Each structure stands twice: as C-alpha cells, then as structure tokens.
Amino acid sequence: MKEIQKTDETVLAEIMDRVRYARSKHPIFAKSKLEAMNVITEEMDEFIRAVLLGEGEGREYDECRDVIATCFRYIAGEYKQHTKAKTEA
Questions:
Q1: Which structural domain, as residue segments, surrounds residue 38?
Q2: Is 78 exposed, middle or buried (0-12, 13-18, 19+ CB in 10 A)?
Q3: What is the pTM of this model?
Q4: Residues in CB range of 28: below 8 A, 6 or more apart
C-alpha cells in the first residue's frame, strides 16, 4: 500500500506552526552562536533517540520538525538579538 505524501505547502505550514510554538514556549532562542548550536544539537539528539527507540512515526516527525524549527530560528538570526544587546551594554 502506497503512503500518501504531504505537499510542500503542508510541510512548510507544519514547520512554521512549530516555529511559532517554539517562539511562544521559548521566546529567547539563544544568546550566542554557541548556545544556538547547543539548542539545535539537543533537538537533533531527541530526533535520533525517537528513531532509534522506535517511538513511532508521529514522535519522529515532531522531533524532526523541532530540529528544523531551531535551524530556522538560527538562520533567522534570532540569537543575534541578544548578542547585539550584550555588545551595546
């Protein structure tokens, strides 16, 4: 039986939902590049654990979206807000 694949638009909407959720739950993403990298690494570890432990496709997808959301926030430069504020003080 062939699985139905999601459209690009659906996947992008799910990612943006996750970004919005992450921003509401964690308004401060990171205060430096290193901290941002650690946040991304922690999310990647959770994704890997979900896959290796067979926690189910739903959990795997949730964790994968979290990885992408943290990478999105990095690319958006959210860590720079706090780095800039620190240097201006």
A1: 30-88
A2: buried
A3: 0.84
A4: 82
Question: What's the confidence (pLDDT) of residue 89?
Answer: 52
Give the model's pLDDT for residue 76. 96
Q: List, for the chain, all residue ranges whose pLDDT scores fall below the cut of 50.
A: none
Count of domains for the chain: 1
**Rama region for 77: left / alpha / beta (φ>0; ψ in -120 to 50; rest):** left
Give the closest residue to 18 by CA, choosing from 82, 80, 73, 55.
73
Task: Give domain status of residue 49, yes or no.
Answer: yes
Residue 17 lies in a domain: no
Angle at Cα 4 formed by Cα 50 and Cα 65, nearest 5°? 35
Instruction: Report the amino acid identity of residue 60.
Output: E
